[in-house]
Each structure stands twice: as C-alpha cells, then as structure tokens.
C-alpha cells in the first residue's frame, strides 16, 4: 500500500525508540552478514553479456539499494524498453535453512523510517554487491519489452545477463533536465513512454495514488510544520516502467500456469460512496460519472486539501494480497489499482516475494521447469509478506504519530482550525485534519458535521507515548477573535 515518506527529521525525534517498541531488529544477525559477505565476494557467473546496453538507475537522491536500471530506445514507431533488475537470488539462494535466507524470510521487506531504513538484506548486498551501482558489472535479470506507438506491449523477453549501469541519476536533477529538454539519451523518451502507459492505465480505470512526501521545516511563526512535496513527473514516469514489467510478469505466469500474483479487489460501492463523502467534505468536485481513478489522477499532492483526500483514498487499495497458484489460475487474477493482472518482480532488494516471482518468469520464459525450491516456496510467501507488510504499516503509523507529537508538543492549550473529514458513528468519533500543521486527529463528533471547518484545542501531546489529544472548541469557548 502506498505510504507517505517523511523527509529531513529533526534529530530530537527518537525513531530508534519507535523501532524498539515494534521489536524491529537494530542489527542484522552476524551469521547472516557473514553469508552475505561471502556471497558478495564470489566471482560473477558466466552470463550473456549485456554491458553494451547503456542502462542507468533513477532513484531518490542518495539511494544505495538500486534494484532497477532502465534504458529506452526508439524501435520503428514504438519503443524497446530494457529493464535490468538486481539478481538477488543468485547471491542469496533458496535454501531456507541458510541463515541469510531464513532472516530474509523473517523480515520479508525493507522497513523505511524518516531517519533511515531497516534492510531486508545486509547492506553488504543491498547497498553493495547486489546493488546496480554505476560503472561495475552486475548479474541481473534483464527484461526486454517492446511497445507500439500507443504504449501497448507487443513482445516480452526475460533472461539473466551481465549488465553495467552507466550512471546513477536522481529524480530532482532529472526533472530539471526534462524541463530543459536535456534528458540523457538512455531515458530521453521516458516522459513520452511514461505518459502513454499512464494514459492506458486511465483507460483501464486504474487507481494511482501519488501520496506526497512531507518535510519537517520551521514555519514563519517559528513553529515546526510539514511542507508537502508531490511526486515529480519523472518519478511517475519511472514508476510506469515498473508497473509495465509487473503486468508483463503476470502475463507470463498466467500463461504458464504457475506463479505469484499481486491481487486487489476492485473498489466496492460502499468504499466509493465513503470516498465521495470525503471529497464533498474537502470541497473537491467529483462528477457522478467520473471513476475514482480519474478524480485521483487530477489532484496535486502538494496541496494540503488534495493530500488529505489522497490519504483517504488509500482505503480503495486495502485488501491487496499475494496470490500463489500452480495449475489452474486463481479465482482472482486482477489488481484493482493497476486495472490488470499484476505481479511484484522489480524490487527484490526490498521485497522477498520478488525474487521468487522473478524465478518463475525466468523458468517459464526459458521453457524449463520452475525450480522445486521456488515452487515449494510460493504457498508460504503470502503469510510471510503479510507479516512484513503489517510491520511496515505499523512503523509508518508510529513514525507519523511521533512526528505529529513533535510538531504539537509545547503547544498544549492552543487552538487550531481544522476540517471535519469524517463522522465515524460506529466508533463515536470524528476525524479532523488540522490546517497547520497538516496532521490528522480524532475527537468527539458531538455537534460536528462532515465538511465543516471547526476549531480544536490541543489537550495533550506526549512524546513518550507518541499520542496527542484534541477537542472541539464550542462557540462559548471560542478564544477572543476566534
């Protein structure tokens, strides 16, 4: 599920304590680290040489766990997309009694917090030997996907290869280059291809949530606050390549009769109705005949009102699951957010499932049996991934709560304007979003109506529990001039 990233946290927020409360390990087991070092020191395997392809990586500034490298080239009236994915399984293997493999099964995902990450793999691999760092040869899984002039897939190939990234690029720099018409040749057509794929997604009524990142800064009044940063266009275009590859992977697995899909039910009428109420509360227009994905697609996550709605829209993507199958296809094969069948195969440094789904695709594409260890792992992956995703979600919520308390601590007794997003009758509470700082809170629903702007008073903000409380200010209690 999409999550908002919090950037540049002040050092006074103790995220180590947050991780400790959630029993997230502070270090990697030594025996697993030793295995990772040994794996990273192995000579590269004898693989087809694809180092002539001028691949580049494109990530947030400072990234070191580089899963993907991309290259696009014109081919007739369409394009050929090369997408190299770190070959993590070659380093790690499949023996679940091995200490490194066992630890990755326990972790399942990389966990991200404002001050750093808790990696799925030891950094010796995730930021070293397995990462697609520039100017070094790496084993990779190389996807080659041909597109026509509309961005539709016309051919797919995937095999292992030796690759070499030419450059490590970052989003802000490349967005500036795109704006100036000076993108490097390997990604010069990324905006065009990305927009074509996004247009096809809209035709499928896909739901793409570009949740904004937030940065903790000093406001003009001297108080800490959050500024919101919407995804850059180049980020969205790059994400389309990953989605494209996931759609192709699902196609290979469904055609081959075995695999691991990422599935999600389409939004229910009740979910859409609830979301419509949120747009009404926030004053966002939503015509009766407009699908949810179209409404979401025209919002600007850097605007607090739109960001509040995007956070509400996450409910449409709840219920995503990993669905293994071996033989007949599963009852549900589609992903309501993507608007198509879909699989996770592009982030093996950060997600356990990807390396197994990738291995299925490699075997099917080569016309050979899926390795027995991979086949046997497929039914166990959903539970492992669900546990990892629960931990990631809990960490996201706990970090957001810690940040909210940091922003509000010391301002107890002050009043804040807020918009009422939802009246939750079952839980006897209202959900409000403060205008400044833009954080969510729960309070008594008595006398409140959805969509109204009210004043709330901060009762408490406890840094030790990461909890804060607000209450609506009744008219008789309004401060002078409020």
From TrEMBL:
It holds the Pfam family RNase_II_C_S1. The lineage of its organism: Bacteria, Bacillati, Actinomycetota, Actinomycetes, Nakamurellales. This is RNB domain-containing ribonuclease. Residues 47-367 form the RNB domain. One of its GO terms (biological process) is mRNA catabolic process. Signal peptide: none annotated. One of its GO terms (cellular component) is cytosol. InterPro entries: NA-bd_OB-fold, RNase_II/R, RNase_II_C_S1, RNR_Ribonuclease. One of its GO terms (molecular function) is RNA binding.
């Amino acid at each position: 599920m999409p999550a908002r990233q919090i950037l540049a946290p002040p050092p006074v927020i103790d995220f180590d304590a947050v991780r400790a409360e959630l029993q997230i390990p502070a270090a990697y087991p030594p025996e697993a680290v030793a295995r990772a070092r040994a794996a990273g020191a192995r000579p590269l395997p004898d693989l087809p040489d694809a180092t002539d392809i001028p691949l580049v990586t494109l990530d947030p500034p400072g990234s070191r766990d580089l899963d993907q490298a991309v290259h696009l080239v014109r081919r007739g009236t369409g394009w050929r997309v090369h997408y190299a994915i770190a070959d993590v399984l070659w380093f790690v293997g499949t023996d679940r009694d091995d200490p490194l493999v066992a630890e990755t099964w326990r972790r399942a995902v990389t966990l991200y917090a404002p001050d750093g990450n808790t990696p799925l793999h030891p950094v010796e691999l995730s930021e070293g030997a397995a990462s697609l760092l520039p100017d070094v040869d790496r084993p990779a899984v190389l996807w080659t996907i041909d597109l026509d002039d509309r961005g539709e897939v016309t051919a797919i190939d995937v095999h292992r290869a030796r690759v070499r990234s030419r450059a490590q690029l970052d989003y802000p720099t490349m967005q500036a280059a795109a704006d100036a018409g000076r993108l490097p040749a390997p990604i010069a057509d990324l905006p065009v291809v990305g927009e074509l794929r996004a247009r096809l997604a809209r035709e499928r009524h896909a739901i793409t949530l570009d949740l904004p990142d937030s940065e903790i800064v000093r406001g003009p009044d001297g108080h800490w606050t959050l500024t919101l940063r919407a995804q850059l266009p180049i980020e969205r275009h790059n994400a389309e390549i990953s989605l494209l590859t996931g759609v192709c992977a699902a196609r290979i697995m469904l055609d081959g009769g075995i695999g691991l899909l990422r599935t999600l039910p389409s939004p229910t009428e009740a979910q859409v109705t609830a979301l419509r109420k949120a747009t009404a509360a926030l004053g966002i227009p939503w015509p009766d005949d407009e699908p949810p994905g179209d409404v979401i697609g025209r919002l600007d996550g850097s605007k607090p009102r739109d960001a509040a709605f995007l956070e509400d829209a996450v409910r449409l993507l709840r219920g995503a699951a990993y669905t293994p199958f071996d033989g007949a296809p599963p009852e549900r094969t589609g992903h309501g957010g993507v608007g198509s069948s879909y699989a996770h195969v592009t982030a093996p440094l950060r997600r356990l499932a990807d390396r197994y789904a990738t291995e299925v695709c490699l075997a099917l594409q080569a016309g050979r049996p899926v390795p027995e260890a991979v086949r046997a792992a497929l039914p166990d992956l959903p539970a492992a991934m669900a546990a990892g995703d629960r931990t990631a979600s809990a960490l996201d919520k706990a970090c957001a709560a810690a940040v909210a308390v940091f922003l509000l601590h010391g301002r107890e007794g002050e009043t804040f304007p807020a918009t009422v997003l939802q009246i939750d009758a079952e839980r006897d509470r209202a959900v409000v979003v403060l205008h400044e700082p833009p954080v969510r809170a729960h309070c008594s629903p008595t006398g409140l109506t959805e969509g109204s702007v009210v004043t709330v008073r901060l009762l408490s903000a406890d840094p030790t529990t990461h909890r804060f409380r607000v209450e609506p200010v009744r008219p008789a209690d309004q401060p002078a001039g409020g």
